[in-house]
Design goal:
Layout: E1 11-13, E2 16-23, E3 32-36, H1 42-60, E4 69-76, E5 79-81, E6 93-94, H2 102-115, E7 120-125
Parallel strand pairs: 4-7
Antiparallel strand pairs: 1-5, 2-3, 2-4, 4-6
Helix pairs in contact: 1-2
Length: 126
């Protein structure tokens, strides 16, 4: 990924940290989880992600005026630049395509939205 400071392809995800989930800019108190690449495989992280989305959709389907699911963010602030740039405070970057396979993730969203009778029309996936 490209560093927002030096604009080089030198931004890397740290080996451990926190992943946050936002759907249509909504989140729950449990819409985050810790990851540790030294102890977990990508499949383990994907299972955590699936559990969190299951919890979220179960919560969200109780809304009276549900919007279609159009924006999904799976982000982390646990990134660093190989060139030692100081990243701006509050910077968060997408984990999709780095430790979460995009195609597998879209399949998961499709499956879970159908299961919970929610509409999915992705306009933004970060």
């Amino acid at each position: 990924m490209y560093c927002p400071k030096c604009l080089n392809n030198s931004l890397c995800m740290k080996s451990k940290g926190t992943i946050f989930i936002l759907i249509n800019s909504h989140k729950t108190t449990t819409s985050q989880f810790l990851y540790n690449l030294a102890r977990e495989e990508e499949e383990d992280i994907f299972e955590h992600l699936e559990e969190k989305f299951e919890e979220f959709f179960h919560w969200y389907k109780g809304f009276e005026n549900k919007e279609k699911i159009s924006k999904v963010e799976v982000i982390s602030s646990d990134f660093s630049c190989e060139n030692k740039c100081i990243l701006p405070p509050g910077s968060r970057f997408s984990a999709i395509g780095i430790i979460i396979d995009k195609k597998q993730f879209i399949n998961l969203l499709t499956k879970l939205t159908k299961k919970h009778n929610l509409r999915l029309s992705l306009e933004s996936l970060e």
